[in-house]
Write a structure and sequence with these properties.
The complex is a heterodimer.
Chain A: H1 10-13, H2 16-32, H3 36-52, H4 56-80, E1 90-94, E2 97-100, H5 101-126, H6 130-139, H7 144-173, H8 182-202, H9 204-213, H10 234-256
Antiparallel strand pairs in A: 1-2
Helix pairs in contact in A: 2-5, 2-10, 3-5, 4-5, 6-7, 7-8
Chain B: H1 12-38, H2 48-57, H3 59-77, H4 86-101, H5 108-134, H6 141-152, H7 157-185, H8 189-192
Helix pairs in contact in B: 1-2, 1-3, 2-3, 2-4, 2-7, 3-4, 4-5, 5-7, 6-7
The chains are: A mainly alpha, B mainly alpha.
C-alpha cells in the first residue's frame, strides 16, 4: 500500500527539487555573506517553521548538539582562541576563567555559521519525503542503482535503529549495565553493537536473492509509480534559492577582488 | 564447468551485493554513533560500518559507504558542513579494503596495523577539516576536553586539534577494526571473496 503523503503546509507541499534549491541558496548565503543579523534571522525563521510544522520533538535532539557545540566553542575559544593576544579586553569571568572579546568573536565566527545551517537545513530536509526524493533523482537522470542505494540507506537506518533498541532492551533485561563509570559503559557497547552488525550481515545473501528475483539487475527501463504533484510555489522557491546562491557568490567574489566595499557588515 | 550461482562474487550479482552492503554500512555507522552518544562515550564509533563493508566488499565500496554515511548523517542533522569529514571515512575504507584484498586482515597483528593506519589518517585529515568547519574542536566531548587540556599547557590550537585526535581515533578505530575482524572471520568463504581476495587453503 502506498504511504499517504501529507501536504498540509507550504513546506510539505513543496517539491524536493524546490527544497534542494532553497537549501543550496541558504548554504551559500550563510557561508559567503557572513552576517550576524542574517544568521540570527535564519535561526528565528527556522524555529518558527519547526513549531508550525510541529516537529519540536525531533528538534529537541538537535538542540542537544547545538548546546554541546555552544558550551565547547564558547568555553574553549572564549578563553584560549588562537587570536587572543596579551592585553585583549576581558568580556567576563566565570570560575576564575577570563573570557576575552577576541575569543568570543572567534567562537561567533564558527558558531553562527554552523548553527543557522543546522536549524535551516534540519527544517528543510525533515520535510522531504524520501520516496518523492527518489522520484526526483530518477527524473533528474541519476541511475536507478545509485538512487536505490541512497534511498535504502535511510530505510535501513530506521530498521536497524528499531533492532538496536530491541537488542538493548533485551540485554538490559539480562542484566547489562548501560550506566555507571566509563569502563562499564564501554563494556556495554559491544553486547549491543555486535548482534546488530551480525544480524544485518547474515541477511545479505537472502536480500540479494530477493532483489535478484524482483529484477533488480534487469536492464529494461525502470518505471516510477509515483508522480510529484505540481505546486504553485515550486518555481518561485527554486528561483529564490538559485538567486540567493548567485548573489552570495558574486558578492563574495566582488569583495575579494575589492571591486566593491562590503555593504553587508562582516560582524561574524 | 564453472557456473555462476547466487553466491558468485563476480558479475552482475556483485552489483546487487554492493547495493545492499553500502546502505548497511551507512546504517551501522549511524547506529554506532547513536549507541556511543546514548552511553555517553567520549568517542565517535561511527566508522564500524565503513570498516566492515571495506573488509567484506573491498576498498572502493567501503569508501563509498563511508562517504555516503557522512552525506546521509549531515542531511539528517542539517549540519551539511560536517559532510566534509567524508574524506576521513573514505580513507578508512580504502586502507582496510586494500588490506583485506591483499589478505592482510586475518590476524590480530593485521588488525593493529589497520587500526594505527586508520587512526593516523583520521587524525591527519580530521584536524584540518575540524579547523575549517568548527575552528578546531568538534561535537565530541572527549576530543574537545583533550584539545582544551593541550591548549591549556601551551600547544597551539591546530596542533592540539591533531594531537587530541590520535588517542581518540586509536580507541575508536581499534574498536571498529576488532568488530569488523570478528565479523569478517566468521563469514562463509563465498562472502569473503567479495572484496577481490582469494581464499588461501
Amino acid at each position: 500500500m502506498l504511504q499517504e503523503r501529507d501536504y498540509s503546509t507550504v513546506l510539505r507541499s513543496l517539491s524536493p527539487a524546490a527544497k534542494l534549491w532553497l537549501a543550496m541558496g541558504l548554504i551559500f548565503s550563510l557561508i559567503f555573506l557572513k552576517n550576524t543579523y542574517y544568521a540570527f534571522a535564519v535561526i528565528a525563521i527556522s524555529i518558527v517553521t519547526i513549531i508550525r510544522e510541529k516537529q519540536t520533538g525531533l528538534f529537541k535532539l538537535l538542540m542537544v548538539t547545538i548546546v554541546i557545540l555552544f558550551i565547547s566553542m564558547y568555553g574553549i575559544y572564549g578563553t584560549m582562541a588562537p587570536n587572543i593576544m596579551e592585553g585583549d579586553p576581558v568580556a567576563f569571568r566565570i570560575f576564575n576563567l577570563n573570557f576575552y572579546t577576541t575569543g568570543i568573536a572567534y567562537a561567533n565566527r564558527y558558531y553562527l555559521r554552523v548553527v543557522p545551517l543546522m536549524c535551516a537545513l534540519f527544517t528543510i530536509f525533515l520535510s522531504i519525503d524520501i520516496t518523492d526524493l527518489s522520484v526526483t533523482m530518477c527524473k533528474a537522470g541519476i541511475p536507478y542503482k545509485y538512487v536505490f542505494t541512497f534511498v535504502d540507506s535511510f530505510q535501513v537506518i530506521t530498521l536497524l535503529r528499531k533492532e538496536m533498541e530491541q537488542i538493548r532492551d533485551a540485554q538490559r533485561a539480562r542484566g547489562l549495565n548501560t550506566e555507571g563509570n566509563l569502563i562499564q559503559r564501554f563494556k556495554a557497547f559491544v553486547p549491543i553493537i555486535v548482534p546488530v552488525v551480525a544480524n544485518s550481515i547474515i541477511k545479505i545473501q537472502d536480500q540479494a536473492i530477493a532483489m535478484e528475483t524482483k529484477g533488480f539487475n534487469s536492464e529494461c527501463k525502470k518505471t516510477l509509480y509515483r508522480e510529484i504533484p505540481a505546486y504553485k510555489w515550486n518555481v518561485p522557491v527554486a528561483a529564490f534559492g538559485i538567486a540567493l546562491a548567485v548573489f552570495s557568490i558574486t558578492y563574495r567574489i566582488l569583495v575579494a577582488l575589492k571591486v566593491i566595499e562590503p555593504f553587508i557588515s562582516n560582524i561574524i | 564447468m564453472n557456473m555462476n550461482t547466487v553466491d558468485s562474487a563476480k558479475g552482475r550479482l556483485k552489483g546487487t551485493y554492493i547495493a545492499i552492503m553500502i546502505p548497511i554500512g551507512v546504517a551501522i555507522n549511524y547506529i554506532g554513533g547513536i549507541i556511543a552518544s546514548s552511553l555517553s562515550l567520549p568517542i565517535y564509533l561511527d566508522s564500524i560500518g565503513t570498516v566492515i563493508v571495506a573488509a567484506i566488499m573491498g576498498p572502493w565500496v567501503g569508501a563509498a559507504s563511508g562517504a555516503l554515511y557522512n552525506i546521509v548523517s549531515s542531511l539528517i542533522s542539517g549540519n551539511i558542513m560536517a559532510s566534509m569529514f567524508a574524506i576521513c571515512n573514505i580513507g578508512s575504507g580504502l586502507i582496510v579494503g586494500y588490506m583485506a584484498r591483499k589478505n592482510h586482515f586475518k590476524s590480530i597483528t593485521d588488525v593493529i596495523v589497520a587500526t594505527v593506519l586508520v587512526a593516523l589518517w583520521n587524525a591527519i585529515t580530521g584536524a584540518p577539516i575540524a579547523m575549517v568547519v568548527y575552528g578546531g574542536i568538534d561535537g565530541n566531548a572527549g576530543t574537545n576536553l583533550m584539545i582544551a587540556g593541550l591548549n591549556a599547557i601551551g600547544t597551539d590550537l591546530a596542533n592540539a586539534a591533531f594531537l587530541a585526535r590520535i588517542p581518540v581515533n586509536l580507541v575508536d578505530k581499534g574498536i571498529a577494526s576488532v568488530i569488523a575482524w570478528i565479523v569478517y572471520k566468521r563469514l562463509p568463504d563465498h562472502l569473503k571473496t567479495l572484496n577481490g581476495s582469494t581464499i588461501e587453503k
